C-alpha cells in the first residue's frame, strides 16, 4: 500500500510532507503524543486530524481545543479541571484531558499556553502513561513556527512529544499545480477550470507567506473573474485590492499586480519575492 492510499487527504508529491504525514500516522498507531509544527496555513491541523483517522477503531472520538480562544488563567482549568468546595459539599469539574480518556485531544496553537500550564499538563500525562491502552489519552498539538524561530515548550512536556514539522509551501513548489487543480475541482466540480502554465510559473516564483491558505484564497478570488475555464496571469490585474488577513495585491509600475507578504504575524515580518 502506497503512502497516497494511506493518506488520501495529502495533496502533492513532496517527499518532505509525505514523510511528515507517515511519521504522524505511525506515532498515532503506537500511542505516542505528537507536536505538529509549521507556519500558518501550511496544513498542520489537516495533517494531525488525518493521522487520527488511522487510529485504532476501538478509540473514542477526538476533542479539539483552540488554546487562543481562552484566557491564560482559564485554559488550565478547562484542560485539567477544577475542584470547588461550598460548605460540606465538594464539586469536581472534569477537564478536557479527563473527558478525552480512551480517545484523543487536539490542542491548536499550544504556543499560547503558559509554561506553568504546560508543566502541569506534562505531569497529568505522565500519570496517564501507566493506564491501560483503553484508558489512555492520545494528545496531539499544533504550534506556529517560522524558519527563523523555535517554539518554546516546557522541557517536561517536550520530552513526551514527537515533534513533526510540516514544510512551508515555498519548500514544496512542485505541489503547487496539484494543489491548485485539487482546489479548483472541489470549488467547481461540474466545470473544468485550469491554470495556465504562465500562471503556475508565477505562483512558483512567489514565496507564499500564507502558504496553502493563501494560495486557495488567491484562486477563490480569481474564480470570480471572467475566465472561460482558463485562469491566466492577466487575471491578476483585476484584483487590485488588499486583504490583510491573507494576502495583498496591488498595482505596480507595469500594470500587473504585485503580491506582498500580507500575512504578517504580530511581532514578526516576512519578506517575499514579487509575483511580477
Helix vs. strand class: alpha/beta
Mean pLDDT, as a whole number? 77
* Run of helices and strands: HHEHEHEEHEHEHEHEHHEEEE
The CATH homologous superfamily name of the largest domain equals P-loop containing nucleotide triphosphate hydrolases
The CATH architecture of the largest domain is 3-Layer(aba) Sandwich
- The third-level CATH topology of the largest domain is Rossmann fold
Reported for the largest beta sheet, the result is: 5 strands, parallel
Quick summary:
This protein has 276 residues and is of the alpha/beta class.
What does this protein structure show overall?
With 276 residues, the chain is an alpha/beta fold. It folds into 2 domains: 165 residues, 3-Layer(aba) Sandwich (Rossmann fold), CATH 3.40.50.300; 90 residues, Helicase, Ruva Protein, domain 3 (Orthogonal Bundle), CATH 1.10.8. It contains 10 helices and 12 strands. The chain has a 5-stranded parallel β-sheet, covered by helices on one side. A 3-stranded antiparallel β-sheet has the order 10-11-12, covered by helices on one side. A two-stranded antiparallel sheet has the order 3-4. A hairpin with a 2-residue loop joins β3 and β4. α4 packs parallel to α6 and α8 packs across α10. The longest helix is centred in the N-terminal third of the chain and has 15 residues. It is elongated. The chain starts with a helix and ends in a 16-residue tail after the last strand.
Amino acid at each position: 500500500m502506497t503512502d497516497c492510499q494511506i493518506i488520501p487527504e495529502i495533496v502533492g508529491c513532496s517527499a518532505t510532507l509525505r514523510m511528515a504525514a507517515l511519521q504522524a500516522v505511525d506515532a498515532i498507531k503506537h500511542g505516542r503524543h505528537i507536536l505538529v509544527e509549521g507556519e500558518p496555513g501550511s496544513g498542520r491541523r489537516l495533517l494531525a486530524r488525518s493521522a487520527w483517522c488511522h487510529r485504532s477503531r476501538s478509540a473514542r472520538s477526538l476533542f479539539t481545543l483552540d488554546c487562543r480562544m481562552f484566557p491564560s488563567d482559564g485554559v488550565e482549568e478547562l484542560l485539567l479541571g477544577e475542584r470547588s468546595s461550598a460548605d460540606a459539599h465538594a464539586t469536581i469539574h472534569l477537564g478536557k484531558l479527563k473527558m478525552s480518556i480512551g480517545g484523543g485531544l487536539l490542542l491548536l496553537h499550544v504556543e499560547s499556553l503558559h509554561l506553568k500550564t504546560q508543566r502541569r499538563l506534562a505531569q497529568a500525562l505522565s500519570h496517564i502513561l501507566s493506564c491501560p491502552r483503553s484508558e489512555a489519552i492520545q494528545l496531539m498539538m499544533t504550534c506556529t513556527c517560522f524558519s527563523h524561530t523555535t517554539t518554546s515548550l516546557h522541557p517536561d512536556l517536550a520530552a513526551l512529544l514527537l515533534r513533526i514539522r510540516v514544510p512551508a509551501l515555498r519548500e514544496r513548489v512542485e505541489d503547487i499545480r496539484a494543489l491548485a487543480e485539487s482546489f479548483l475541482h472541489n470549488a467547481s466540480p461540474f466545470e473544468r477550470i485550469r491554470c495556465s502554465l504562465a500562471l503556475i510559473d508565477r505562483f512558483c516564483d512567489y514565496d507564499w507567506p500564507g502558504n496553502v491558505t493563501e494560495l486557495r484564497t488567491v484562486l477563490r478570488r480569481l474564480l470570480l473573474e471572467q475566465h472561460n475555464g482558463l485562469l491566466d496571469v492577466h487575471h491578476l490585474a483585476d484584483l487590485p485590492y488588499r486583504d490583510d488577513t491573507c494576502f495583498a495585491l496591488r498595482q505596480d509600475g507595469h500594470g500587473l499586480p504585485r503580491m506582498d507578504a500580507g500575512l504578517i504575524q504580530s511581532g514578526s515580518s516576512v519578506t517575499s519575492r514579487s509575483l511580477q
